[in-house]
Amino acid sequence: MRRVIFILVFGLIGIFGFSQTLKPEQVPQLIKDRVQFKFPQSMDVPVAWSREKGGDYKANLTIMDTPAWIVVDTLGKIKRVERRIHETYLPEKAKKYMKSLDPNYTVVSVMQVTDDKEQVTYQTVARIKTDISFDGKGNVTSKK
Predict the structure, then answer these.
(1) What DSSP element (H or E) covers 14?
(2) pTM above 0.90?
(3) Which residues touch 50 (CB under 8 Å, ≥6 apart)?
């Protein structure tokens, strides 16, 4: 389990390592205007900007007292909004699935990701202590 957490932490560090921190004056006005139009509160809170590996801009700010990241392409189109949320906002079906794997699971973090088509997905990091056996082809054979 420690190995999994170790890999997740260094994976996130690697992802953020590919992003390039920018000063606000290095971000095109079109990009800043688009974020301010969609999230007016961004005019009142500090926004940290970075550039992702693919060239998209990423705004890091606080929305309703929670961290959020807004990814905008070079044309000003918002590609996705990532918000950290409390585990109580996870859909019941997701909670039941994790409980089926381990009744004593603990949620480490939950991100709600909304893409440009308004499709919502949840990315969850949870500590689940389950023994899973797989066959030679990778199919689950048993869970304990």
Answers:
(1) helix 2-18
(2) no
(3) 19, 20, 21, 22, 57, 58, 60
